[in-house]
Design brief:
By secondary structure, the protein is mainly alpha-helical. The chain has helices at residues 15-23, 27-38, 44-50, 55-67, 92-115, 119-133, and strands at 71-77, 83-89. The longest helix is centred in the C-terminal third of the chain and has 24 residues, at 92-115.
């Protein structure tokens, strides 16, 4: 999946577009997040009953969502022995706050990088391109 800031030039951008782009989520991962958020806590089997995809696909989505901190798991011991994992997500308010903080942080770093853009740096980049392809 490729991300381009120009994709945000549209007037009909949604919060989900921003979440997908910012965290490089696939449509499937966003669907799993939505499902877990709305009907939490859920186990893998319950998610598959809502989103009819194979277990490996749902598991990968859960792992990605856990890695970015949107989903957490709880290990539940079963009465008949064994265990299963139940998944729940941050609230939409918590997701909004996390996204807002991350975007503000990146915006500050981007602004600083832009202010450091000089003719000398552009010339140096041009010279490195020439040197790289010089035969």
């Amino acid at each position: 999946m490729s991300f381009s800031l120009s994709s945000f030039e549209s007037d009909d951008i949604t919060c989900f577009d921003i979440i997908k782009a910012f965290y490089a989520l696939t449509d499937n991962e966003l669907e799993v997040l939505s499902c877990v958020n709305k009907a939490q806590p859920l186990d893998i089997r319950s998610i598959i009953s809502i989103i009819p995809k194979d277990r490996a696909t749902i598991s990968r989505s859960i792992k990605k969502l856990m890695a970015i901190g949107f989903v957490r798991s709880d290990k539940i011991t079963l009465d008949r022995g064994g265990y299963k994992f139940m998944y729940s997500s941050l609230s939409m308010r918590e997701i909004r706050e996390k996204l807002t903080l991350n975007i503000e942080s990146i915006s500050k770093r981007m602004t600083a990088a832009i202010s450091n853009l000089t003719e000398e740096k552009c010339t140096a980049m041009y010279e490195s391109v020439l040197a790289k392809y010089k035969k």
